[in-house]
Design brief:
The complex is a heterodimer. By secondary structure, chain A is an alpha/beta fold. Chain A is built from eleven helices and ten strands. Classes of the chains: A alpha/beta, B mainly alpha.
Chain lengths: ~250, ~240
């Protein structure tokens, strides 16, 4: 559904990657594994349509997303959710954070009415944000301020925030690298639940065990390129590329 | 008013007149400064957001020019605005000399660097990843700007406060472009708290000057309290 084809990207004279291709379809989890700093985040930002790649195309369905109007691109962007390594929450209540994606999709008159209503007193949400918060086990903390949350809870709110508007694609950039095992497990469960709801998930991680646990396919990102993509067990048990084997065995140190 | 009081203190005898006078001065002061700050905010916030978001050549230079503008002498601003609205100036046709609107213009010029500069600092401190999150969730650039304003609301409240403080307490420019005019009926036309204090003190009417001074201080405190309350509460965010 979301296809990056031969994309090249860099900043100024510096090349981040030469020619990378990656695709994700509904109801599958694709893990991008590789050491820090190889360009996994840059790739995810391109998939989230933050920037256009210097060369190559990104297609949603069969449409080149950088070959359409900004309004049309916004529609594509709104089918994609993203969670960053840091929770990056807004300084507001848990509910306000979780409903943000739903609010920006509403017409201005509704948003304005909601803002005015929230000045006078509490307002009721649409329900989707509560459901998303329950998915990550935060149904009890809806009315709390995010400043009172632990790091793990904050990251789960960030996850719920991306899930609330029911995206078709979910991009996760090292979503659990700062988390303890329990919160990691909760996020991983939520990822699998998203897959069961037919969401296509791309997760960048340097945790190979995580990739093994949740991914259907794995893309190995080494030396500024995706050197191998395949079914998770194939890549881990019988890699085609010698560098993949060395990286998985921990012999390659970057 | 009882006769005895009037004989005890000549000040009390004048009070009915004085209060109307003082009330009209407060009204002019508030009108001029609030409108100036409101207009300046509409002008300054988008500029602060633009400078805060974009990377461009000369950004540091522009920022230091704005910061220098915060301390710009108000009499000089008054002089420039007076020239601008005078007969041979570019705004001469509007006939604004010695009007409250001319004072609004000069206070706008004075408050704008303060509001822009302090807002810019506040906006710049909003983390990139929070703005990215708003964009990633399907926000437009306008939504991202709104999120930034909400995240920076304490800093922006401080900016408005500082701008209001600068506007309502300055004497130089309003004296030059407004002319400190009050009618024969004791109603202020372009007389503000500051210019009135200056005049009353010079004429030796210290009681009136003191009352005006106290009102000015209370006003500034009051506006402070309101803005701090708005900024620290969950105003508009819940």
């Amino acid at each position: 559904m979301l296809d990056a084809r031969n994309i090249h990207h860099g900043y100024g004279a510096e090349t981040v990657f030469e020619s990378v291709s990656l695709s994700v379809t509904p109801g599958e989890v694709v893990a991008i594994i590789g050491p820090s700093g190889v360009g996994k985040s840059t790739l995810l930002r391109l998939l989230a349509l933050f920037d256009s790649p210097n060369r190559g195309t990104i297609e949603y369905g069969d449409t080149d997303v950088w070959d359409v109007s900004e309004q049309r691109r916004l529609e594509f962007r709104r089918r994609i959710g993203m969670v960053f390594q840091e929770a990056s929450l807004f300084d507001a209540s848990v509910r306000r954070n979780a409903e943000y994606g739903l609010r920006v999709r509403q017409p201005w008159t509704d948003r304005l009415r909601h803002e005015v209503a929230s000045l006078v007193g509490r307002t009721n949400g649409t329900g989707a944000e509560i459901e998303a918060l329950e998915t990550v086990g935060l149904g009890e903390k809806v009315e709390q301020d995010v400043s009172s949350l632990s790091g793990g809870e904050a990251q789960r709110v960030a996850f719920a925030r991306a899930l609330a508007y029911d995206p078709e694609i979910l991009l996760l950039d090292e979503p659990t690298s700062d988390l303890d095992p329990r919160n990691t497990a909760l996020i991983e469960d939520a990822v699998l639940e998203a897959r069961d709801r037919d969401i296509g998930v791309v997760v960048a991680t340097h945790d190979m065990h995580q990739a093994e646990r949740i991914a259907d396919r794995v893309a190995v990102f080494l030396e500024n390129d995706i050197i191998e993509v395949g079914r998770t067990e194939d890549v881990f048990d019988d890699p085609d590329d010698e560098r993949t084997r060395k990286f998985i065995d921990g012999e390659l140190i970057y | 008013m009882p006769l005895e009081l009037a004989t005890v203190s000549p000040l009390f005898a004048e009070f009915p007149f004085e209060w109307n006078y003082i009330r009209s001065i407060v009204r002019v002061s508030l009108y001029v400064s609030l409108v100036a700050v409101a207009l300046s905010t509409l002008f300054s916030l988008p500029i602060a957001l633009l400078i805060g978001f974009k990377e461009f050549r000369g950004k540091t230079l522009l920022t230091s020019i704005i910061n220098t503008g915060m301390g710009f002498p108000s009499v000089v601003v008054g002089l420039i605005v007076l020239f601008a609205v005078s007969g041979q100036g570019p705004l001469g046709s509007l006939d604004l000399v010695f009007t409250p609107e001319a004072m609004i213009l000069s206070q706008f010029v004075l408050a704008t660097p303060v509001i822009t500069g302090v807002s810019l600092a506040a906006v710049s401190s909003v983390e990139q990843n929070v703005r990215d999150a708003a964009y990633a969730m399907g926000g437009t650039r306008f939504d991202v700007a709104l999120v930034t304003i909400k995240e920076a609301r304490y800093g922006i409240a401080t900016a408005l406060l500082a701008g209001f403080g600068r506007a309502i307490s300055e004497v130089g420019s309003v004296l030059i472009v407004g002319g400190n005019i009050a009618g024969a009926d004791g109603e202020s036309y372009t007389r503000t708290l500051t210019t009135a204090i200056q005049l009353e003190a010079r004429q030796g009417r210290f009681e009136t000057a003191m009352i005006l001074g106290a009102i000015l201080v209370v006003l500034v405190l009051l506006v402070n309290a309101i803005v701090v309350r708005l900024g620290s509460g969950n105003g508009g965010y819940r």
